[in-house]
């Protein structure tokens, strides 16, 4: 989901607010299990992933206690019906650990594959405009641009 912001590196209050709103909306919905039973969404059905501890801390402060929040490494091997991913940095140039860290194919894959049903990626539109110096960096940016959930919100649907 596109969340416009400028000047953010390790903390993006705009993404925290957008994720907080998404969590509130998701908790009014339902989840259908593999066996076909439907139940209300629970806080434990949602995990939130961010690349930097500062953003993780901001999200923990803003979200209900039952929502699991952490870095990609924390959720290795875990799943939930919904995974919300905060990209945090306003642009590739503002990433403290560089484009290769933030756009890592492995990190993005691990993050979105935590979701059993829905993964939403929250990020600034300028992330897609990164100035690439290598073919590998082009591949990294292309991965973000190719995420359907990132592109859908640009057209106004969720």
Automatic annotation (TrEMBL):
InterPro entries: Coronavir_polyprotein_1ab (IPR050534), DNA2/NAM7-like_C (IPR041679), P-loop_NTPase (IPR027417), SF1_C_Upf1 (IPR047187). The keyword Cell membrane does not apply. It comes from the Bacteria. Keywords: ATP-binding, Helicase, Hydrolase, Nucleotide-binding. The keyword Translocase does not apply. Residues 9-124 form the DNA2/NAM7 helicase-like C-terminal domain. One of its GO terms (molecular function) is helicase activity. Signal peptide: none annotated. It holds the Pfam family AAA_12. This is Superfamily I DNA and/or RNA helicase. It comes from Aquamicrobium terrae.
């Amino acid at each position: 989901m596109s969340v416009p912001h400028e000047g953010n590196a390790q903390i993006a209050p705009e993404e925290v607010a957008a994720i907080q709103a998404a969590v509130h909306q998701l908790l009014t919905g339902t989840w259908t299990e593999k066996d076909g039973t439907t139940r209300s969404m629970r806080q434990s059905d949602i995990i939130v992933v961010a690349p930097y501890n500062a953003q993780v801390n901001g999200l923990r402060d803003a979200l209900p206690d039952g929502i699991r929040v952490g870095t990609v490494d924390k959720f290795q091997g875990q799943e939930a019906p919904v995974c919300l991913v905060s990209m945090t940095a306003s642009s590739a140039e503002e990433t403290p650990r560089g484009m290769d860290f933030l756009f890592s194919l492995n990190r993005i894959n691990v993050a979105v594959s935590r979701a059993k049903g829905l993964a939403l990626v929250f990020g600034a539109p300028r992330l897609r405009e990164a100035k690439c110096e290598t073919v590998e960096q082009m591949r990294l940016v292309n991965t973000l641009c190719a995420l359907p959930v990132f592109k859908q919100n640009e057209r106004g649907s969720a």
